[in-house]
Write a structure and sequence with these properties.
By secondary structure, the protein is of the alpha/beta class. It has 2 domains: about 170 residues, DHBP synthase (Alpha-Beta Complex); about 90 residues, 3-Layer(aba) Sandwich (Rossmann fold). About 30% of the residues lie in helices and about 20% in strands. It is built from 10 helices and 16 strands. Strands 1, 2, 3, 4, 5, 6, 7, 8, 9, 10, 11 and 12 form a 12-stranded mixed beta sheet that branches. A 4-stranded parallel beta sheet has the order 13-16-14-15, sandwiched between helices. α8 links the parallel β14 and β15. α9 runs parallel beside α10. The longest helix has 18 residues. It starts with a strand and ends with a helix. The structure holds adenosine monophosphate and magnesium ion. The site of adenosine monophosphate (AMP) has 20 residues, from β7 and β11.
């Protein structure tokens, strides 16, 4: 067990993070989506350590994070026209693009695939860290595998204390759900994981964009999508928006049985009922995305059971939110 320090991002903590990264260690750092657990992407041992610390299955590849002025052509072999256009429109930001790899980083990053996922985060603290170390940083979310992704330094600490030396604290992540993962290896881009940069936004920018839907028996394009994910450590129940009455009755039944039940829903639904134990996701779709993991983590500490009502809206950003909710609620 090592001592785990949480430090705000300044010259001193950046120097420490550089020292850890260059000696093969892992550093947790904030991004605009969730906190990442970063290691030098060139270093086999360091990348292996990420999988070990998280208990991550070794067929679930990592995203490489780089600063704004990093020369991508050093890592990937072909960047299609639409990817350049999307980079202009959305980067730095919560969009990860998958390219044909040049196999310069450790093969453990992509778990042996011939592609590489790259992201340029917009968070100022993330940029400062990436510039300071000036290396491609392989980083998944900084949680124990399958648990809810962390959106505060405290969440990271709760999962990884004793296992890493340093958590760079950049406050609460504003985005709240993981980046959109976009396959850029074909003629038409394809969303492998939905996020804040939506399929609709991508299609509006470059004309066309597909959405990958996992089918039984098919080779999985984005291996991460097949795993149970984002699960709180308590019982859960998810109801569709149209079944909100039923959800409320179920909540009351649980309360009457003496269970610590918490009700998770958007503000408009919360205002329809008298809910004492409320996990309010907020009003707008960006608020809902931003609050989801924070409220799941709050809920698992306080509740025996979290009863959630799906948001009314189901497209755009809510498509990605629903994908996470379904996985979190099993
Ligand atoms: P995480 O950083 O924990 O959110 O996980 C990274 C996500 O990116 C997972 O869903 C991976 O499956 C996906 N990913 C990473 N690299 C690739 C790649 N080369 N091809 C397809 N998906 C990838
Ligand atoms: Mg993750």
């Amino acid at each position: 067990m090592m001592d785990t320090r949480i430090l705000t991002i300044d010259e001193q903590s950046l120097k420490l993070s550089e020292k850890i990264i260059k000696s093969g260690g892992c550093v947790a750092f904030p991004t605009e989506t969730v906190y990442g657990l970063g290691a030098n992407a060139f270093d086999d041992g360091a990348v292996g350590r990420i999988f070990e610390i998280k208990g991550r299955p070794n067929d679930n590849p990592l995203i490489v994070h780089v600063h704004e002025d990093f020369d991508l052509s050093a890592l990937v072999s072909f960047i299609p026209w639409y990817a350049k256009q999307l980079a202009k429109a959305f980067l730095p930001g919560p969009l990860t693009m998958v390219y044909k790899s040049k196999n310069r980083v450790s093969p453990a990053v992509s778990c042996g695939l011939d592609t590489l996922a790259v992201r340029i985060p917009s968070h100022r603290g993330a940029q400062a860290f990436l510039r300071f170390v000036n290396l491609p940083i392989a980083a998944p979310s900084a949680n124990i595998s399958k648990h809810v992704s962390p959106v505060t330094a405290q969440h990271v600490y709760d999962d990884l204390k004793g296992k890493i030396e340093l958590i760079l604290d950049g406050g609460k992540c504003t985005g709240g759900i993981e980046s959109t993962v976009l396959d850029c290896t074909s003629d038409v881009p394809c969303v492998l994981r939905s996020g804040l940069v939506t399929r609709e936004m991508i299609a509006a920018t470059v004309g066309e964009c597909n959405q990958y839907v996992m089918k039984e028996g098919e080779r999985v394009l984005s291996p991460g999508m097949k795993y149970k994910h984002y699960s709180p450590k308590c019982k859960t129940a998810l109801f569709g928006y149209d079944n909100r009455e039923q959800a409320y009755k179920y909540y009351l039944d649980c309360i009457n049985r003496g269970e610590r039940a918490y009700f998770m829903c958007e503000s408009a639904v919360a205002s329809m009922y008298n809910i004492e134990n409320l996990l309010d996701l907020g009003g707008t779709e960006l608020e809902i995305a931003s609050n989801l993991y924070d409220k799941l983590r709050e809920g698992e500490i306080k509740a025996d059971i979290i009863i959630a009502v799906a948001p009314q809206k189901q497209d755009g950003v809510m498509y990605g939110v629903m994908n996470r909710m379904r996985k979190a609620f099993g």
